[in-house]
Amino acid sequence: MPRGKYTNHKGRNRKFTSPEELEEQRKQEELKQKWRKEHGPSSSEEESEDNKSGSGSSDDSDSDDDQPAKAKGVSGLIEVENPNRVVKKNKKLNNLDNLGDGEKPQLSRREREEIERQRAAAAYQKAHAEGKTDQARADLARLAIIRQQREEAAKRREAEKKAKDEATKKR
Q1: Pair 127, 136: CB distance under 8 Å
Q2: Residue 80 φ then ψ, to 5°
Q3: What pLDDT does 58 receive?
Q4: SS3 for the chain, per residue?
């Protein structure tokens, strides 16, 4: 029991559905659906509608369904054309093929700029690979200097190694 004068009633009569009850409800729903499929759709609804109609026969209701509903008053006589209404025109199949080829989709400014940026980047990469850009020339010059330094260091090491071998042989 809670202490104090006032008690909290929230959640006191909560009931949680057990998994077994949920499974039972699901099975009952499946049985109902199966029964409805076997006995035809809404057969009980049709019977209740016939009972509600009373003395009216079903032939009268069929004749009402065949005739379109007539407009009441002057609205059936006046035909108003909305000037803002766009009438959908039927297009021929061969015209559709021709329209699709000639028309390019309109791109927004950002999309056009993005495509142009990509083209420029690709062109720069191609020129850079061929060695035509200033940056590529600088890179190639730097690589040539490094290659030359490495060759000189290799020659120096080779000369030192030979000198060391000759010194050991002379001893």
Answers
A1: yes
A2: -105, 130
A3: 46
A4: CCCCCCCCCCCCCCCCCCHHHHHHHHHHHHHHHHHHHHCCCCHHHHHHHHHHHCCCCHHHHHHHHHCCCCCCHHHHCCCCCCCCCCCCCCCCHHHHHHHHHHCCCCCCHHHHHHHHHHHHHHHHHHHHHHCCCHHHHHHHHHHHHHHHHHHHHHHHHHHHHHHHHHHHHHC
Instruction: For residue range 98-129, list pLDDT tens digits in order.
Output: 655 555 678 899 999 999 999 999 999 999 88
- Report the predicted TM-score, pTM, of the whole model to 2 decimal places: 0.32
Contact criterion met (CB below 8 Å) for 124 and 133:
yes
* Torsion from C-alpha of 46, 47, 52, 54, nearest 10 degrees: 120
The pLDDT, as a whole number, for residue 56 is: 46
